[in-house]
Design a protein that fits this description.
By secondary structure, the chain is of the alpha+beta class. The protein contains 18 helices and 15 strands. 36% of the residues lie in helices and 14% in strands. The strands form five sheets. Strands 4, 5, 6, 7, 8 and 9 form a six-stranded antiparallel beta sheet that branches. Helix 3 packs across helix 11 and helix 8 packs antiparallel against helix 10. The protein is flat.
């Protein structure tokens, strides 16, 4: 398909120019990013005296106050300390029954792909190094050739089973879903993009590298181009294209360096009919043409639009936005001036202590030679005889005192850092100095939760973006089955739901906080017919250190409510319906109870009236007998109601 600025002689010149412009803009920021990492962890913790004069440390000082280390760890823990469970809400009613199966499959895949570890790595980049980082979500499979019949064997007669023609296909034998961090030194953002929603960028890409065997399998490279594409890792050399400045890194073996980009097709293909269609292009260093130029295999065209992945598979995370700049600074970059000032103040304090060593003086005219010998030897618990008052014989040379306002400046600098990072002393897990009222502490904590909640929301959206891309891969390449009665196909599932997580579920609570939360839920929902509290009770028991397998049991069905029966005479017990009702609610006397009651009556001398013999059944052929009531003829007949009310009607 046609592309803009296409040159018949150099058809990919436009794309190579865009990629190079993005690299130049990124590499201009790279020294600052390397400096931030170096100041947080100098050579991975191997701090030496020469580090202060390193080319990465423009602030020349002999003292290092590593505020970035503690602040970065505290900030990451506040933003993301556990992987939440994704919740699915169906967009249409027919997807509702697929929520349990698809949700379980998606959350299991998130765990298998170690998404939590990747997000923690990305947050270290965003908070400390560069202010921006990304992750690549992709799907891999391994296949082997197999011979399969070209027709259904069940449709072939038994005598021709051995003559069924076969064909060779690549059968999938293993799959994996991957979520890998993209280093800020590899991430490619369009140089003209100025927003913060990176799904609205025309394209996203990254530089990467792989072994020769991987390149053969992923890109179909042959031995004829091996010498052109195989070389040293581009992250090595004098201008290290990495956040790690250790010159001994990335020298394991020769690799194939490549660049992978994903772009929205409707920006560059005039005949594209979908706004969600994505194109994948891969350039290998050493070759002029791309080795892959295809429609992204993570999506599929359907009658109602694109199925599968509908977001760019490169997910980008930032915590802040600077107007018209898609590469915002990190917290370490913003607080660098304060850290430098704090180090300068601490260095002055060290120098002051070094040059203020106590020196004493003595008056030789007042201290005898023997006493001076004791003092020189450092003897103690003895007498020193002086000629006159001792305070005039021995004294200390006056020392310069460290100005108290310097300590105040240190406190001001640290307050500035906590305001910039929004990580106070209490939020970092330590006690703050000074007296504060409970109301003030509550206001501070409320405002802190408001600001950190905004950044947590960005991390949550980043996580859900990864989950949505994984869901698209599962919809196209998953191995689970969808029941036919649902009326939807597996390919439609990814776009059939909205994805969310529980509020603040990315932050881990301690055991007591979780216990208190579960207690409130159990108290509210234990008697509700709409809640299954067994999983809640199971977790509650586990948090209290007990084994739920031996403590938790399935709830027993509630017995029916006892029937309230009013009995006025003993004849009421002769009613079979009343006795049946009492027996159903376990209120009727048992045979042992009846036997005991009869013995008690006999012991009391009370006769037991035997039950009347049963009345024999009437002969259906016999003429009806009249009631034999003395003094009344046809006593069984009733008068008509109309006759009884004649006087009332006349009135």
């Amino acid at each position: 398909m046609a592309r803009e600025d296409e040159d018949p002689q150099q058809p990919w010149k436009g794309w190579l120019g865009r990629i190079e412009a993005s690299r130049r803009r990124r590499n201009d920021r790279l020294p600052e990013w390397q400096r931030n990492v170096h100041r947080r962890a100098p050579l991975n913790g191997r701090f030496t005296a020469s580090d202060s004069s390193s080319s990465l440390n423009t602030h020349d000082t002999a003292v290092s106050v590593n505020q970035d280390w503690s602040l970065t760890k505290a900030k990451i823990a506040q933003l993301y300390s556990q992987t939440p469970e994704v919740r699915l809400s169906p967009r249409f009613d027919q997807f509702a029954q697929a929520v349990p199966a698809f949700g379980r499959e998606l959350n299991d895949t998130i765990g298998d792909a170690t998404v939590g570890t990747t997000i923690e790595e990305v947050l270290a980049d965003v908070v400390n190094a560069a202010g921006i980082s990304g992750a690549l979500v992709y799907y891999e499979s391994r296949t082997e050739p197999r011979d399969v019949p070209m027709v259904d064997p069940s449709m072939v007669p038994p005598e021709m089973q051995g003559q069924i023609p076969t064909t060779t296909v690549d059968a999938v034998v293993d799959v994996q879903h991957c979520v890998d961090r993209i280093s800020p030194a590899d991430l490619l953002i369009p140089s003209d993009f100025t927003g913060s929603n990176y799904d609205k960028a025309r394209w996203l890409g990254h530089d990467s590298r792989c072994t020769w065997s991987q390149a053969q399998r992923m890109f179909g490279l042959g031995d004829d181009v091996k010498d052109k594409v195989l070389g040293r890792d581009k992250r090595t050399g004098t201008l290290t294209q990495s956040l790690n400045t250790d010159s001994t890194t990335f020298r394991d073996t020769d690799v194939v360096n490549f660049t992978e980009i994903f772009y929205w097709r409707h920006y560059y293909h005039p005949d594209e009919t979908s706004f969600k269609a994505i194109q994948r292009v891969v350039f290998v260093e050493g070759l002029d043409e791309p080795v892959i130029n295809e429609e992204y295999k993570g999506q599929k065209r359907g009658q109602q639009g694109m199925l599968g992945v509908t977001k760019l598979p490169i997910r980008v995370l930032t915590l802040t936005y600077v107007s018209d700049d898609s590469l915002p600074p990190s917290d370490s970059s913003i607080g660098r001036f304060q850290v430098n000032e704090l180090e300068a103040s601490r260095d002055a304090m060290v120098q002051q202590r070094k040059h203020s060593i106590p020196i004493r003086w003595g008056d030789t005219n007042r201290v005898s030679p023997n006493s001076r010998t004791k003092i020189d030897k450092g003897d103690f618990q003895g007498f020193i005889w002086t000629n006159g008052p001792g305070d005039r014989a021995i004294g200390e040379v006056a020392r310069t005192s460290y100005p108290s306002e310097r300590m105040e400046f240190d406190s001001i600098i640290k307050n500035d850092l906590t305001e910039l990072w929004q990580v106070g002393t209490n939020q970092a897990g330590a006690f703050a100095s000074g007296q504060r009222s409970a109301s003030e502490a509550k206001i501070v904590q409320t405002n802190f939760q408001t600001r950190v909640g905004q950044e947590r929301d960005k991390v949550t959206r980043f996580f859900l973006g990864i989950a949505e891309v994984l869901a698209g891969h599962l919809a196209l390449y998953g191995t689970f089955d969808v029941p036919d009665e649902l009326g939807v196909t597996r390919e439609q599932l990814a776009t059939g739901f909205t994805y969310s997580v529980r509020a603040d579920s990315t932050v881990r609570m301690d055991a007591q906080q979780r216990i208190d939360q579960l207690e409130r839920v159990i108290n509210y929902l234990a008697q509700s017919p709409y809640a299954n509290v067994k999983p809640i009770v199971t977790e509650y028991v586990e948090l209290n250190g007990l084994d739920p397998n031996t403590v938790v049991v399935d709830p027993q069905p509630k017995p029916p409510e006892p029937v309230k029966i009013s009995i006025s005479t003993a004849e009421d017990f002769n009613n079979p319906l009343a006795i049946a009702t009492l027996m159903r609610t376990h209120q009727a006397p048992a045979p042992d109870d009846l036997a005991a009651a009869m013995k008690l009556l006999q012991a009391a001398g009370i006769g037991i009236v035997p039950p009347a013999p049963p009345t024999p059944p009437a002969d259906p052929n016999a003429p009806p007998a009249e009631a034999m009531t003395p003094g009344m003829t046809n006593a069984g007949w009733d008068a008509a109601p109309r006759l009884d009310r004649r006087e009332q009607d006349a009135a």
